[in-house]
Amino acid sequence: MDTLQSASDDRALLQSEWQFQDASPQGMMLNTLSNELSDGDVSEIISYLPEIEGLEVLELGAGIGRFTTHLAQKARHVTAVDFVDKFIKKNQKSNSCLDNIDYVVDDVMNLKMSPNSADLIFTNWFFMYLDNESTRCLLAKLLYWLSLNGHVFLRESCVHGSGNISLRKATTYYREPNDYEALFNSVTVPTEDKQAVYGFNVIASRPVEIYRKVMNNSNQITWLLQKVRRDASSTLEH
Ligand SMILES: C[S@@+](CC[C@H](N)C(=O)[O-])C[C@H]1O[C@@H](n2cnc3c(N)ncnc32)[C@H](O)[C@@H]1O
C-alpha cells in the first residue's frame, strides 16, 4: 500500500474514533477536567493571536467551536472545517447568532481553497493527528492559501497527551517541539521569481500556562508562524 493511501486510511480511522466522542468541551479536550480548564484555555489561546479584526480566518479541526465564536466575533469571516458532522452541527447551533461563518464537513486534506484567500489559519490540536508527510503537504498548501505576511497559529500536545480520555486505535503524533520547528522550516513553495520562495518564519512560541499550572504539563506548545518571501538560496537558522 502506498504511503498516501495509508495516511488516508489512518485519517478514516481517526474520523471514526472522533465520532464516538461527545460534542462537548470534554470530548474536544479528551479530558474529564474540561470544566476547570476550557474557559481559561480558550482565553489564553485567543490572547496569543495577532489582531484579527477584519481578517479572513480559516479554522482547521474546528470541532464544536470552542474557538470559532471568539474568532468570528472579530474577524470579517471564518471558514470552520471539521470532518465530524455532529461537531460542526453543534458549532453551527452555538454560533447561530453570527452570520459570518461558513461550515465545511470534510477531511482537511481534501480542502481546496483559492490562493491568498486567508489572512489567519487557526489550529488547536490538529497537526498532532497528521504524520510528517501529510503535515509537510498541508503546510505547503497553507503557504498558497495564505496572503503574504499572513499567519498560522498552532497549539499541539508535544511529548505526551494532555488529557485522561484516549482515542483508542488512532495514532496521535506527540512530537518534540524541535520536530515541529524542523517541519515548519522544511517547507517552502515557489514564487513567480526563481530567486525567491515563500516559507514560514516562527514569530512566537510558548507553552500554555493554564496546563502548566493546573496539569503540571509544560508540553502544550503554541506557535505563531508568518508567511514570508525570502531568497531561495538563503539557509534558515531556526
Ligand atoms: C482535539 S479536537 C480539537 C477541536 C477544537 N480545535 C478545540 O480545540 O476545541 C480535534 C478536532 O480535529 C478534527 N480533525 C482531526 N483531523 C481532522 C482532519 N483530517 N480533517 C478534519 N477534521 C479533523 C476532529 O474531528 C476534532 O474535532
Task: Give a brief description.
This protein has 238 residues and is of the alpha/beta class. Helix content is 35%, strand content 26%. The model has no long low-confidence stretch (mean pLDDT 95).
Write up what this structure looks like.
The protein is an alpha/beta fold and 238 residues long. The protein has one domain (3-195, 210-216, 224-231): Vaccinia Virus protein VP39 (Rossmann fold). The protein has 8 helices and 8 strands. It has helices at 3-19, 25-29, 34-47, 68-74, 85-94, 132-145, 177-186, 209-215, and strands spanning 56-60, 77-82, 101-105, 118-123, 146-157, 188-190, 196-207, 220-231. It has an 8-stranded mixed beta sheet with strand order 3-2-1-4-5-8-7-6, with helices on both faces. Strand 4, helix 6 (132-145) and strand 5 (146-157) form a beta-alpha-beta unit. Helix 3 runs antiparallel to helix 8. The longest helix is centred in the first third of the chain and has 17 residues, at 3-19. The radius of gyration is 17 Å and the shape is globular. The structure holds S-adenosylmethionine.
Contiguous low-pLDDT stretches (5 residues minimum) are: none
Bound small-molecule species: S-adenosylmethionine
Name the overall outline.
globular
| CA distance, first residue to last residue | 35 Å
Q: How are the strands of the biggest sheet laid out side by side? A: 3-2-1-4-5-8-7-6
The CATH architecture term is 3-Layer(aba) Sandwich
**Portion of residues within helices:** 25-40%
Tell me the strand percentage band: 25-35%
CATH topology: Rossmann fold
CATH class: Alpha Beta
CATH superfamily caption: Vaccinia Virus protein VP39
Output the number of helix runs: 8
User: What is the arithmetic mean of pLDDT?
Assistant: 95
Order of helices and strands: HHHEHEHEEHEHEEHE
Mind summarizing the main beta sheet? 8 strands, mixed
